[in-house]
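From the pipeline queue, job 12 of 40. The input is one protein chain; the requested action is below.

Action: predict structure.
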Amino acid sequence: MDNNFRSYVAEFLGTFTLVFVGTAVATLQGFGGGHGGTGWLEISFAFGFTLMVLVWVFGPASGCHLNPAVTLPMALAGKLSWAAVPGYLIAQVAGGIAASGLLLALLKGLPDYDPSLHGLGANGNPHGMTVAALFGWELVLTAMFLVTIAAATRPSAPAGSAGLTIGGYLFIAHLVGAQLGDSSLNPARSIGPALMQGGDALKILWLFIVAPLAGGLIGRLILYPLVYEDAK
């Protein structure tokens, strides 16, 4: 089997798992009936520790990007062939959409779940922040995410530490951003839930695509080279 195809499958499965688990916990936190009440800490654990495991599971197959805001900066930095980029991006977005579709179908099996009331874990702006502030949170958190990823995967990084480092950062980012409706850091994480949830989530979706992509480019191509001289 072609190695690129294996990478695409890994990206699809990894993104599917990250979005499915993370948004399931976020959605269940949002309503009662014995299912909710998990809190922001558990949402942060869900995203951060799921990514930690996935880095170890799928990292050897594809690098475990699971995120267009990782794939594009890595390609620009010469760490991924441009020929593989379209397949990575399609697999990531498709994985997120598939995860949201399945999650919606399964949650409808709960008698007290109402998609119009409880949503599907889509990113948004529940506190009515200015667009500039919301964009800023997403930009900064994603920029530092890419610095973390690049540092954790550099040749001289401690062996076997990438999963804990990268997942740990996503956990910390969600401690800050989850309660703001923010901390997507990943267009593929945002697209699926927004498409399935609709409404206001679709209106603000552009921000959770543009800001992570911009933040990823700043983090990998500008900030990381200021710290590590081995940056390409």
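Job complete. The chain has one domain: 3-227.
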